[in-house]
């Protein structure tokens, strides 16, 4: 939409998730081009010019778009497998299948993953893709292309693995890259696709997979590469007790100390899971402003444990929410993670004081923007920020009797998305994608899942 064209949204509840948690029981939002121009209580200002559309949002809550901070799209075509395994056994069971993916499969899986998130209110997504079988095609290009077509703001965390079974790692030998190959391919992906501008739709991060699937040298050189290119760093950290034991046996220290020794703590770093963190670990993350992608459903699915999110927040650690790969979170939806984050954390030491509804919403919006390094552009509804916002319908049977709209959104059933805007462009209407054919995606993902299963069975 041209910068001088406007959309006016009125008669809605608004949760801005700004620094003061400003909310309006009935208010308006004016979008001009790809920016939020103004918002406030009551009716929109009179005399606005070039208004292309007015939306009566009675019965709706408007929030910033949800920000997903950790995912593995390729896993969409291996959902429902190894359902009773812990992390290490789950990885051992699935790596031989994942090692046989190709570009066509990855494209279909990215379509499924992104479609499911986008129709549920995600406006900024990321994918940590680290499996690059030899001869599998342009996997990074395929994923980025799908995000562009779907109209979702996107960060590709270009992953890598170079520690295979022969080196004491978990991936099969044929599923990893060489150190030199991984670094060269990652640098090329950054140079070809990363956009550093304020309203960037595509960014790239450097993302070796995990301590037990990459060498120390890949971690060190990956951090050096990211900082030379001016991009962010992402990996898995402190996900399970077994990972902690692995690090102590192999490196003589726990995961956080190991990451610090390799240059992997800092305000340009975010890590997935961080379940098994002691007070010293949390203090190190807070001191360095290292971010965390909290994935409550996946942590529960793999019996990894309960991350100390309330303690991290109290210490000043940036925390966002992640779906994680759909082989460990089959629903693939981030809006359900708002509720799950709140509920799971109340099972921990802080009990009912762990998280409240507004803290959960902040994790899924502004917290995610912080973790991705984009808090100046997205994550809250404020004039001058990018127009990434969602209209949640809260006047139906599922929510109408809950007086507080934020409580309804977080504690209640998954709310329908009447409209979702990214960069000022509407991509969802009445819970259906406007930018992709959901039924066609369902057919293609099923076909690719079946094809991968056949290839793996022959393997």
TrEMBL record:
Pfam families per record: Amidohydro_1 (PF01979)
Source superkingdom: Bacteria
Record-annotated Amidohydrolase-related domain positions: 61-425
Sorted UniProt keywords: Hydrolase
Annotated InterPro entries: Amidohydro-rel, Metal-dep_hydrolase_composite, Metal_Hydrolase, MTA/SAH_deaminase
Record's protein name: 8-oxoguanine deaminase
């Amino acid at each position: 939409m041209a910068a001088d064209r406007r959309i006016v949204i009125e008669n809605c509840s608004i949760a801005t998730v700004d620094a003061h948690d400003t909310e309006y029981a009935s208010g308006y939002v004016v979008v001009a081009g790809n920016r939020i121009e103004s918002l406030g209580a009551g009716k929109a200002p009179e005399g606005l010019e070039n208004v292309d559309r007015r939306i009566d949002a009675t019965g709706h809550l408007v929030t910033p778009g949800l920000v997903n901070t950790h995912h593995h799209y390729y896993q969409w075509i291996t959902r429902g497998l190894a359902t009773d395994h812990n992390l290490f056994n789950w990885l051992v069971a699935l790596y031989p299948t994942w090692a046989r993916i190709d570009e066509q499969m990855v494209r279909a899986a990215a379509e499924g993953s992104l479609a499911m998130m986008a129709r549920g209110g995600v406006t900024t997504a990321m994918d940590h893709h680290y499996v690059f079988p030899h001869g599998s095609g342009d996997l990074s290009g395929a994923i980025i292309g799908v995000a562009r077509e779907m109209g979702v703001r996107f960060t590709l965390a270009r992953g890598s693995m170079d520690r295979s079974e022969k080196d004491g790692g978990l991936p099969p030998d044929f599923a990893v890259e060489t150190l030199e190959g991984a670094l060269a391919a990652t640098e090329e992906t950054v140079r070809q696709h990363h956009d550093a501008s304020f309203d960037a739709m595509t960014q790239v991060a450097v993302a070796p997979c995990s301590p037990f699937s990459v060498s120390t040298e890949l971690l060190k050189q990956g951090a050096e590469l990211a900082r030379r290119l001016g991009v962010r760093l992402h990996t898995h950290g402190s996900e399970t007790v077994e990972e902690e034991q692995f690090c102590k046996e192999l490196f003589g220290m726990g995961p956080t100390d190991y990451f610090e020794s390799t240059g992997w703590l800092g305000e340009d770093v975010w890590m997935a899971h961080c379940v098994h963190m002691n007070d010293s670990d949390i203090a190190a993350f807070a001191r360095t402003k290292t971010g965390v992608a909290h994935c409550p459903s996946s942590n529960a699915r793999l019996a990894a444990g309960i991350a100390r999110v309330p303690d991290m927040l109290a210490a000043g650690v940036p925390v966002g929410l992640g779906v994680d790969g759909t082989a460990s979170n089959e629903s693939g939806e981030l809006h359900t993670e708002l509720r799950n984050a709140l509920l799971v954390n109340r099972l921990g030491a802080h009990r009912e004081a762990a998280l409240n509804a507004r803290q959960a919403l902040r994790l899924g919006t502004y917290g995610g923007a912080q973790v991705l390094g984009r808090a100046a552009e997205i994550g809250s509804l404020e004039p001058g920020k990018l127009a990434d916002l969602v209209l949640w319908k809260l006047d139906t049977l599922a929510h109408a009797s809950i007086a507080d709209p934020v409580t309804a959104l977080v504690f209640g059933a998954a709310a329908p998305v009447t409209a979702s805007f990214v960069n000022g462009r509407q991509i969802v209407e009445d819970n259906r994608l406007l930018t992709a054919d959901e039924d066609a995606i369902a057919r293609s993902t099923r076909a690719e899942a079946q094809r991968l299963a056949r290839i793996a069975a022959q393997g």
